[in-house]
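Query form — protein Aminoglycoside phosphotransferase domain-containing protein

QUESTION: What is the three-dimensional structure of this chain?
INPUT:
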Amino acid sequence: MSTWDVDPGRTVPEVVEAAYGIRPLVVERLVRESPNVVWRFTAADGRYTLKRLGRPCEERWLAFQDAAVTRAAAHGVPAEPLLHTLDGLPNASADGALWQVRRYVDGRHCTDGSAADLRAAAETIAAVHAVPVDGLPEPGANPIQDMEFWLGADEGDLDALGVLVSQTAGPSVWDEVADAYRGAWHRARAELDLAAYQSLPTTLTHGELAGSNMVFDDNGVLISLLDWDGVDIRPRVYDLARALLFLARTGRGSFRVHHDLGVDLLLRAAGGHPLHHAELRAVAPILELYFVPTPRYVRQLAACSPATLLWYLGWAADGARTVRANVRGVVAALATHTGRPEPRERAVPLRERS
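ANSWER: The C-alpha cells for Aminoglycoside phosphotransferase domain-containing protein are given below.
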C-alpha cells in the first residue's frame, strides 16, 4: 500500500511553477525505494503526479514514450499522457534531472488473488498490445534493460557482474548469489537466444506490468495503468510473462502463482491472438533472465540506495532459483489450449540496445 508523507522541500514547487506554470498548494512524497522519486501535489484545478527520473534516458526514447502513451490513451487504454511544459516538451530539465508530470488518478491497486481484478487487467493488457505502432518514433535504447541485456551477453558479462557486485555489496554477497544467477542464465540461454526472441510476435508493450501499476475505482473498474518507464515495441510475451508472475502471484513478495488465475489471465490477455508454442516456451527463460541483475541496475541502486541493493540481490537470487518451477504448470496448461503453429514470418525486430 502506498504511503505519502508531506514534503516540506522547495524543489518541487520551483520545478512545477517554472516549467509547467502550475502552483502546488500541497506537496507529498511517495515513500518507497526506487531510482525514481515520485511526488503528488494538489493545485487549484486538481491533483498531479510529479516524477524525477532516476535512470538515464535518451531523448529519442523519451519522445517515443510520450507518443506511445498518448496513442495508447487515444485507443482506449486507461493511461494518463504526459503534460507538456510551457515550452511544449514532455519533460522538464531542472536541478540536474529530468521531470515528468501527469494527472493523478485516485483509487486502489490490484488485489492479489482477485479473479475480477485479473480479468480487468487482462483486458487492459490486450488493449495495450492492440495499439497500432505504425508511425511511432523509433524507440531507441529503453532505460529499463533486464532480460534483453542477458540475451546478448556471454560468460564474460557474468564474470563482470560478479566483480561489480563484489565491489558494491561485498565478495560474500556475490558468493551467496552467484550460483543462482549463473544457473538461471545457463538454463534460459539453452532455450532462448536473441534471434528466437526477436522472431516472436511483436507489439507495443507496457514493460512493467504489476499490481502496483494498476488503479481501480470503487466499482472494480481499472481506470489507470501507471508507470510507462519500460514502454517499448518488443515481443508481447515479455509483458505476458511479467503479468503472470506479478499479477497472478499468491501474495506480495511471492514467486508462486495461482494456477487457474494464471492460465485465465494469459488466455484473456492474448486477446484474439492465441499464444504460439514458441511464446509459451519463452515464458520461463524470460523470467529467469529478468532475475539476473544487469550491471547498469546494480550501479543505479548502489548510487541511490545501498541498503535496497542488498535486499534486491537476495530477492533476485531467490527468484532466479524458483521461478521456472513456479510457472511450469501454467505454461503446460496453456499449451493444451493452443494448437497454433510457430510464426512463419519474422516479427518486427527488437531495436538494438546500448
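ADDITIONAL NOTE: The longest strand covers residues 37-43.
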